[in-house]
Amino acid sequence: MSADEIVDPADARSDQMRRVLLQVGVPILGVALVIAVIAAIGVHSYRVIRDGALSLTHDLLVSQQDYIAQEVGDYLSPASAGTVIARDLLEHGAQDVTGRIFNSYGGSMLRHVPQIHSFYLADADGHFALVERDPKGQGLETTELTGLGAGAQFVHQFRDAQDRPLRTESNPTGGFDPRTRPWYRGAVRSGQLYWSDPYLIAQTGQLIITASIAFQTLDGRHYVFAVNLSLNELTNFLDSLKIGQSGHALILDQDGHLLAGRHMVDVAKKAGWDPAKMVLDPGTYPILAQAFDVYRVEGYGPHTVRSGKRNFISIAAPLPVTARKWVLLLVAPESDFANFALADGRQNLVFSLVIVALAGVLGVLLFRQGRRGDRLAEQLEQARAASGRESQALQAVAGYPNLFDPTDDALILTHGMAELSHARRVAIWRLMHDGGTLLCVDSYDSRQDAHSGGFELSRSQLEPFFDAVAHGDAIHVADAAADARTASFHLLFMRAFGSRGLSLVPVQGASGPVGVITLEDAPRAVAASHFIATIAGIVAARFSAQRYGAVAAAAAELASGERTGGSSAEEADHAFGSGFLVPPGGAVPVEGEAMPAGLFPAVAVMVITFSDLIVSARADPAKMMALVETLAVRLQDVAHRCGLYAIKMLGHRLVCVAGCSRTPDPGAAERMANAALAMREAALSVLAEADLEPVFRMGIDVGPVFGGLLGQEPRAFNIWGDAIGMAEMMAYGAPEIGTIQVTETVYHLLRQRFLFRERGSFFMPQAGVTRTYVLAGRR
Q: What angle do CA 144, 147, 148 make, to 5 degrees?
């Protein structure tokens, strides 16, 4: 062979890797570089636009601040300027026209200036006059305090919009004296325009601030004139402002008391309508409270406040309109003004990505065209490999020597299905003749590489599952717990193993389903469906062969029983009289031979309990005795064939013993299990021939007992111990009639050769918590 014909596998793999890198790596790297360049340009553009936007934002907020300051000044000017004008009118007017001047001026101002709430006029003698809007209409209400002392009253006159009188009312003053009010005393004390603290009128929800001034008329009388402004209108004005997308504006005093802004009614209610408690609450205004703290530290001007992951722009500005300094506080999220920069960057990035995506699509199409042939070749190779594995599995199954022998376990069936379907667990179930029981012939756990069986499921526990099996359709369920047909099966059989998916493949017989194959967590169950269907056919043939074999054995056993029944009738009568169906030792002892006595370390004991047959056959005792005689003969025959040591009849109980020896008998438990299965079939056959339901339960235990001959001639052999009591409890506690319940000791001795179904843990007197099992059959 020349050197050119030699192929190095390592070089072939290296070429394949190089080709994949060229086909995949280079396009991906190019696209990644383009995206990185576009992203870098977008980030740089965003930062430049954002910085310019924030600079412009500060200028806009300063302009907004100037605008609000001007509006607030205009809002308060009717009080500051109007008070001075009213004072000049009143102090130069005649005494008899003072009231008319006050009412005319107040009425005119109330009609044209919406923020004015009312006017006060009081003199040094305690006289008081009030002009305000009629709360029930569009007119005015004038109030005058008449009289002094206890007889003083308020006289209210109501006028419509055309100043025509409507009605007059009066009510007691309640000791009201205007000279004690803060607005009166402040004006007299200051000698100039005085601004009071804000106060609330709870009945109307109005936050009021009063501007008052003192003056003296030509006749020497002293008066105080006051204008009441409603800050509610100022709050409505601030609410109507548009500061970015979600900005806020508040007016506060130097101590943090709220004067105007959003949610003022909620703040007033929370403060109990006490203006002194209406402060900037961080719970209601978290960002504004933080901005006010920054203002108190750094003073007036723009500031940046950060809350969480967001930046906010705040501006604190003075409102020097009143004697009490007010602060205008504006706060707006930085993103409200810079979002357009981010949106512009996103838009540019999206356009760039569209271009990259189109180029990527073209590259993917080219790459797909190149890889399509490789994928098709790989799929063909996988299909060829799967077909080869399936053919090998079928050859292995077909070459199994005892494939159709029902006495052989044929574990290769479940193993092959698990291997091809990648199932976690595969089980073959046989539907018993009554249609109400499923018996697990073999269960293979692929993770543990272990086979088990003998589990038994009853229709009473799994009604929907049995209906699905009886329907005969294949079922594939991703979550067995969520499907009504398989939920109970998952609860009883699958949940302990942690499996979820379930596939059911029916085993069809001549007259319908005779069993089912279950595959748990089998991702390739559908792909291997042809192989599994073939195995289902083989299982159906095995079930059919097993059924015919059982029928033939039963017929032979029945014929044998009929041939031996008459010849041993006399022996049976003697056995009933002595209490033994089979004497100790398996036959009548030889004269002079000593019976064993003492402790027997490992004795197999079986107790069979029968219901009261006499009650069910009270009308015909002869028929009952014939039935018992037939049953006794059959059980005697089974005991002799299985090599039991003794059988004794105790009322409605039958006690069977095997392994009564000083040294442990390793085969006693197996002989007893074989006898139990044969006796159950014999009892079922006899009762069926008599048209009676099964009326017995069976229990088995293995353990130490004491035994020996007791009394005088004729001496009787007897045994006693915990094994007898435990076997009796197993019989009485059997789950269903006709079942054989065994202890955990029996299970461990026989689990390699017999099939069992676990019942669970139970508390047994003198034994504590123990597990029990139901004997189902031989492996």
A: 120
Scored b (16 or more CB within 10 A) or e, 147-172 reads eeeeebebebbbbeeeeeeeeeeeee
Over residues 74-84, the mean pLDDT reads: 77
Indicate if the pLDDT at residue 659 is higher than 70: yes
**The token pair that represents 532 in the structure block:** 């599994």
Task: Provide CB contacts within 8 A for 297, sequence distance 6+.
Answer: none
Q: Is the dihedral of CA 271, 273, 276, 280 positive or negative?
A: positive
DSSP lists the bridge partners of residue 477 as 502
Looking only at the bridges linking them, the beta strands covering 512-520 and 206-216 are unpaired
Question: What's the chain's length in residues?
Answer: 779
**Rounded mean pLDDT of 294-312?**
80
Report the distance separating Cα 230 and Cα 75, nearest Å.
Answer: 10
pLDDT confidence bin for 492, thresholds 50/70/90: confident
At a CB cut-off of 8 Å and minimum separation 6, what does 398 contact? none
DSSP class per residue in 667-729 = THHHHHHHHHHHHHHHHHHHHHHTT----EEEEEEEEEEEEEEESSSSPEEEEESHHHHHHHH
Whether residue 523 has a cis bond before it, omega within 30° of 0: no
User: Residue 750 is encoded by which pair of tokens?
Assistant: 């026989």
What average pLDDT is seen over the chain?
A: 77
* pLDDT band (50, 70, 90) for residue 482: very high
Q: How far lies 766's CA from each of 28, 705, 725, 726, in Å?
A: 75, 15, 10, 9
Rounded CA-CA distance 303/58 in Å is 10
| Residue 610 or 519, more confident | 519
Any alpha helices (H) in 503-662, and if so which ranges? 529-565, 569-578, 613-616, 621-642
The predicted pLDDT at position 325 comes to 74
438 within 8 A of 431, measured Cβ to Cβ: yes
Identify residue 556 by its one-letter amino acid code. A
Domains in the chain (CATH in brackets) are 22-126+177-353 (3.30.450.20), 412-552 (3.30.450.40), 567-778 (3.30.70.1230)
Q: How does pLDDT run across 254-295, given as a tens digit for each residue?
A: 777 777 777 777 777 777 767 777 787 777 778 888 888 888
Element (H, E) at 158: strand 153-159
Question: What's the distance, CA 233 to chain centroid?
Answer: 52
**How many other β-carbons are positioned within 10 Å of the β-carbon of residue 695?**
16
**Furthest C-alpha separation in the chain:** 159
CB 291 within 8 A of CB 314: yes
pTM score: 0.39
